Amino acid sequence: MSKKLSLLLAVVLLASMALTACQPAASGDTKPDCSKAETFCVGLVTDVGKIDDKSFNQSTWEGVKQAEKDLGAVVQYIETTDSKDYDKNISTFAEAKYDVIVTVGFALGEATIAAAQKYPEVKFIGVDQFQGETIANLAGLNFPEDHAGFLVGALAAQMTKTGKLGAVLGTDAVPPVWRFGEGYRAGALYIKPDVEINVVYHNDVGFDKTFSDPEWGKTTAISMIDKGVDIVFGAGGKTGNGALLGAAEKGVYAIGVDTDQYFTVPEAQKVLLSSAMKLLTPGTFDLIKLAKDGKFPGGNYMGKAGYAPFHDVDSQVPAEVKAKMEEIAKALADGTLQTNVPPTKPQ
Amino acid sequence: MSEEQGPKKTRSFKLPPQLVNTGLVPLLAVLTSMVVGGLIIAAAGGNPFAAYAGLFEGAFGSLNALSETTVWASPYIFAGLAVAVGFKGGLFNIGAEGQLAFGAVAAAWIGYALPGMLGADIPAVLHVILAVGGGMLAGGIWAAIPGFLKAYTGGHEVINTIMMNYIALNLTSFLLNGPMKDPNPMNVVARTPLIVESAHLPPVFPEFRFHWGFILAIGMAVLVWWLLWKTTLGFEIRTTGANLDAARYAGVNVKRTIIVTMLFSGILAGMAGAIEVTALNYRHELGFAVGYGFDAIAIALLGKNHPAGVVLASLLFAAMRNGATRMQFLTQIPVDVISVIQALILLFVAADTVVRYIYRIRSRDERFSLTRGWGK
After folding, report:
1. Residue B131 falls within a domain, yes or no?
2. For a 10 Å CB count at each end of chain B, is N or C smaller?
């Protein structure tokens, strides 16, 4: 019997060999040569996470894919499985003479700076990496959080029935968080000057806790809702996600942050009105295009903000609100509408 | 079927049984896993030969690739030895993950804070020894606690080391988020400050990350072999592991041996963490060295709990983890395939009857149990 089994194994092995031999030439043979000037290659290195994470990695990769389609770029990604591989994964692309390397997330910041200095001929795009000093071949892709906050604030002000809005945020000591909160306030007041806004920052704890306190986020959201708030904006890592869960529990609208949280907090799908989004896909594409055109901007590059689709609650959003939102988004983008939120909290 | 009964000429070729158990079976397990993994790659539309070629190139294709493989192998060897020593003493140390984390935290603290506390610089050699030694001690004590509980209360080390993992990992999270957090105002990550230069364990060649920690790991493998097979203590550990009652009857202080085994196991695991800090990352951060303590269990099993086997298994696992990047870069086959193959290896090693059945290797009827039951 065991003889038959080993025979079977041998047959299967042979079959698999034959199978693969018949396949069209493996990608290894047709690998484009990125060292040629006419071949434009873009590589992406994820943080410790998957390329299809429905969040930062995926949205950025979609921007790279767009470069493949629109700019004829050769694109490739490497998924990082351990933080000690950041350097190696970035240099895998650099050694293969890729023209642009995109690194996703704050955690790769230091590795990206080191690589940009080591490979000055390669252009680096660091997503969500604020650059303290300007390096000519490294662009940090950052986003106007105040615009994103303004958009969802305006949306909330149009959708509220009680006239009371809530926001549950991480600490205002982190400028992007503060800009989300103030943008939200400004956007709501722009629509409805008499709206009541309850913006709460989790400032009562240390930096360690402020973004990782879903319990606090949830209870804070629920206590707001009990006082009449009917839309809650949650922004600040797990703390903000806790607020979304609180809104879901109470059955009032929730608004997420950063990426479309319909996919990252499925428990809140039923009540998720929208998310204050950093538009990673167009931001990444724009920078790649600038690199291709030889106009790559070193230092910090400001991407665009937006709001996520309404998904499950789409039918509850009136057409005039949708139209108004598009109008505001357009006005913010072309600069005719200002949020008047300063970059940092005034002392 | 009838041919099974008769004696066979092909069976005349015989390896020494010891070698069959410790060498041939793991080797065949790895081979079988690669074949099955290859089938999975082919089924998913990839080319397994291109994938394995990429894997090999990424692991051994250049000096830098070799260097990176040793970087991956170092913590695997230390942690694999830790688990293997436990198994030799009849103890299943699932707590290597937590012991490793504590080793890293202790080494990082000694690395960045001690000179400031003493108000003086520490000479480089001494500082490295202090940092690594501190990590070893932290891991050792953390493992000795479940050892003590096993020896004196009968509390099962499997349960207790798992529980100690939770305590260690959450405590590490607290320390890195709180008292030990890098105070740099730009920092929002849970990590310690960088350790000072004098606590660095340097790379062997300045242009590669290949560091002395790897050489130290090989040295520890030799030391573990010597200790287990050439000393009285090693004999006591092995006897206690093989048969508790026999050991007790032979006059071995079983309680002491259990605690010493766990202490020694934890020291090795703590060393894995300390070397990652002093030789590679120069700090500890939440998310560094995650899962090595669990990979170490697979490595110890594949290495049949022999130091040489652990070194080979570590190199294999390191080559796979290191080569995965190149494989994905060249073929776009997801790196997850590596996890699948590693899981298959573990499956075939743990259930080696399957391997013996496929390749018609006769069992020597020698049973290896991962752990013993409850009680004293």
Report:
1. yes
2. N
